[in-house]
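Hey team,

Filing this mostly as a record. A colleague (T.K.) asked me to run one chain through the structure pipeline before their review meeting, and I want the input and output archived in the tracker in case anyone asks later how it was produced. No errors, nothing strange. Just documentation.

Input sequence:
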Amino acid sequence: MLVPLTRQTFEELIPAVATGAQYKYAWGKPSDFLKRLLISVVIVLLLILVYKLAWEDGGQVVLILGLVAGLYWLWGPVLSASLRNIQCRKYKYSGFWQGRVLDVYITEDVITQEETVNKKGELVIVDNLERMINVEVGDKTGFTTQLKAPINRSHQEIVPGQVALMIVMSNEEDLSRIAKASDIYIPSRNIWVSDYPYLRRDVFIEVSNQLKRKRGKKGVDGGEERRSERMRSRVDY
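Output structure:
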């Protein structure tokens, strides 16, 4: 099933400014925080140097720039997540998609690589691995997409055959060519699978409930089914 969404609903689902969940995701690990903090300190020191050597008349400007740069460690995640949201919002059309889980499996992927020296003094590259869940979903039209995300304990309840919901994005008005898909929601277990929390989850669940109530009263509109039948692309993350 594929139901086109209005632009207003889509922008409520993926706001321009980062949500709390997106900010938390973009905050990253302690190492990410230390990198941002280091950048803040370096920029502030450079501004002080410029002020001392060549721009003593620009004290107020340097002060403002210094305050902004000094807080980069704090507002950097907002910028990062907001830019990611904007990449989604550039698509002109969107739809609410319902299908089923086709396959679920676990992989170990290389996340980062580190260079170190062993006892013999030789340079060694160490792979940092992370267990990832791979969820493939699809519908009766043949449309499929696969999402890979860091695994958590709730994911062990995901099995093939479960209903899966998500938002799809396209530049085609009839959604015949899907360019991107959001995180996946498994309503029967209230489980989310996401490599990044694109959606405002409270709004998504409300949209899902509204569509469910409409289907209960009127059934699925034939025009929506025809749109779904034209979906033949595959989207891979």
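Quick notes for T.K.: The longest strand covers residues 93-117. Residues 30-53 form the longest helix (24 residues).
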